[in-house]
User: Fold this.
Amino acid sequence: MGGWWLRDHHEYLHGSHRNGGYRGVSSNSAIIDKGRLLRGKADYFSSSHERSHILCAFGMSPLPKGTACYALVWEGEMGTFYDIDSEFNITLIADVLTQPGNRYGLLYGLADPMFPKDGPYPRASDAGKLMALASFSKRSAPTNEERDLLRFLLNGPYPKLSDYDRIALAPHLDAGLDDHEFRNFAGIYSDAIFDVFYQFARTNLERGRPLVIAGGCGLNCDWNTKWKETGLFSEIFVPPVANDSGSAIGTAIDAQFRLTGNPKIDWNVYSGLSFRAESAMDSGRYDVYEKNHDRVADMLAHDLILGWAHGRYEIGPRALGNRSILAAPFSDVTRVRLNEIKQREQFRPIAPVCLRNDATRWFGCDQESPHMLYTY
Assistant:
């Protein structure tokens, strides 16, 4: 069992006799016991949420057992670097910035008139939406008022927007999500958060070692790409389940490590369940076809939008081809239709896909991003 078990704030931080708590990197804090599962007896293991992220990232990485590396866990609560030695001892180097994910999503609420400015935390989807808005940014220099806002958002403990003493005059307050100046500031703010971690890494970490990344901020494609471009690390690995969807995997890896000494697993991103129809499809709403590539190509060429189910579904939050919506990318109207189908804002991006041999022709790059975690 993972360590995040929200019964009260004390257990959120420290765990209980039944779970390992939110923070903690020592393997000695794990709880091993006997329990019951589905009316049967079972061995019981629990370690911290923090360790689950680290173990998930290292265990799923291509790094061999015994490889010394750094780990970065950045998510809603933690923004922390760790040292992992060849014996897999984990040492916390520094909490660089508390609650980077929450701070990031909070800016979205500033411009959204629907978000209460005294709300303690951003909504779960706000960080991902801000990542989309940041892609529209020109990254121009911030104004003096924006610099003041940056200091408020990034310095000191995590704030509420209403704590800002100039909130009524804050730039971009309730400006709306289509506002071009706010979209520009979204990119400035995104870069500022990354720079906090980059400057720490540049100053305090040894160059040339690998880095594994976990936590919800590991789903920020722009930040992952920036880490690659820094040249500080010999390689970067981000699992497709960087957010809390990988926490159970990390706890299982931790249990395996405790029992066998091996923190590595074999895995496949298509490890979900096979497609299964619980009942007959409603022929009045859906047309169902067996797979035929010529038919699919013809449908896409005629601007039809297809729901695609193939094999086992993907682990993690990204649709990677086995449970995807397919459409031809030749008209901007397609993006509008897709966002309407997905019931989301029109500024949200649609991920393109092509054969690797065509990537240079269409996107000017020759690198794979099989788990949709980088930009090029």
Summary: The first strand starts at residue 31 and ends at 37.
